[in-house]
Design brief:
Blueprint: H1 2-11, H2 21-30, H3 35-50, H4 57-61, H5 70-75, H6 78-89, H7 95-106, H8 115-128, H9 135-146
């Protein structure tokens, strides 16, 4: 599933240029992805697209501290929770986008939730929201697509 999502980010920098599901499914199959991967990725993406930031708008209006629920602590590894807090503290995620990211992470099977998949999920949330990334934070997130940067 995550290879499909990474492919979408690389192929369609603008979500508006992403084809309809039926055409996208054919394009992904032609690119060599398995039907199960395609189906899971499109289902996950549908869940992302169905999240209306308006549903989370109250999060942007609050000034309190976000405390993770017991289920979130159990399902989201420490480094993933740290990433979420880091992204919000550095202006990469609004509180509403943070909640969207947590929602999408919790939609994944437990064994697939890791730091690289959380980075990819964060990129997907920002991609769907057409949000700009702060440069240094964006470079860190892009390691989920391209691996760790090397010194040249």
């Amino acid at each position: 599933m995550f290879d499909v999502l990474a492919y979408l980010l690389e192929e369609f920098s603008d979500p508006d240029n992403c084809p309809a599901h039926e055409d996208l499914g054919r394009q992904l199959a032609a690119a060599g992805f398995e039907n199960d991967e395609i189906s899971n990725a499109l289902e996950w993406l549908d869940g992302l697209n169905s999240l209306n930031e308006g549903a989370y708008q109250g999060a942007n209006e609050g000034s309190g501290m976000r405390v993770f629920h017991d289920e979130e602590i159990e399902r989201l590894p420490t480094e993933v929770r740290g990433l979420i807090l880091f992204l919000e503290a550095n202006g990469a995620l609004s509180p509403a986008q943070r909640e969207m990211l947590i929602d999408r992470l919790l939609a994944m099977p437990d064994d697939e939730i890791s730091l690289p998949t959380a980075k990819l999920a964060a990129l997907m949330v920002l991609w769907a929201q057409r949000a700009e990334l702060p440069v240094l934070v964006g470079e860190d997130l892009l390691t989920a697509l391209h691996g760790e940067p090397t010194m040249q």
